[in-house]
Amino acid sequence: MAETSTFERTLAPLRRLLPQRFRTDAPLVPVVRLTGVIGFSTPLKPGLTVGSVARPLERAFAMRNARAVALAINSPGGSAAQSHLIYRRIRALANEKQIPVIAVVEDVAASGGYMIACAADEIVCDPSSIVGSIGVVGGSFGFHKLIDKLGIERRLYTSGEHKAMLDPFLPEKPEDVERLKAIQREIHDSFIGLVTERRGAKLDSREKALFSGEYWTGLRARELGLVDGIGDLRSVLRERYGEKVRMPLIADRGLFGRRSPGIARASLDQLWNGPGLAEDFVSALETRAMWGRYGL
Hints:
By secondary structure, the chain is α/β, with parallel strands linked by helices. The chain has helices spanning 2-17, 50-62, 80-97, 112-117, 144-149, 174-199, 218-224, 233-241, 268-273, 277-292, and strands spanning 31-35, 69-75, 101-110, 122-125, 130-132, 215-217, 229-230. The model is unreliable at 254-258 and 260-268 (pLDDT under 50).
């Protein structure tokens, strides 16, 4: 024991000379930032998808001596499928590595954003964060009256009686709407089951609006059991793991180890032959509408 103590005392000054990323004397909690609308994507504005977050997540969970993995979440939701895929990837890595996950909500974790937060073992948010919106939404436009006024004839050829269901240039059919609502109910039930499984007895079962699609501030979300506490990433991790906790941000890296910004993900061919400015503009409007739904 005396020899071991002497050896440790000899190494102590040398450890302090090492770059921080190589030291093992301070607790390590890698941080993965999950920001943006889920699934909406154009070459110039990639969305949050399982493909875009898989590598940072795997790198974070693979870090040696990690005490936990932190998720910095800021998303108004989006694609139900991509939200669930990201949720499953996080849970699979957490179970494989046996590492706890802490989600810290910034502006908003709503709808699919909240689904991703539920992958964490603990959810923390700011008092003014927007949390919830456990529901399913879909929308479109109807142009058939406009094209009638313009004298435009709609010609559509399909194989399959429901292939043109809810075509925006044709009159809406009640049976098509009911079919869509049935699909939405199925997705909603799955979402409710996921939240109930992950949050369990923490949820306030007396609140009838819990799964209505309504959303709340962080303070009210804590009362309802949707989150566990109030705080920010730095203060929560320092309180939990000490003042010296290391919180490296794990970003996707491209060629030569450089971080890959959104535009770098698109090839020149995609930019030249991909969606035009009009489609990119529509995508930007849809993204803006997603954030605007929560007053952001």
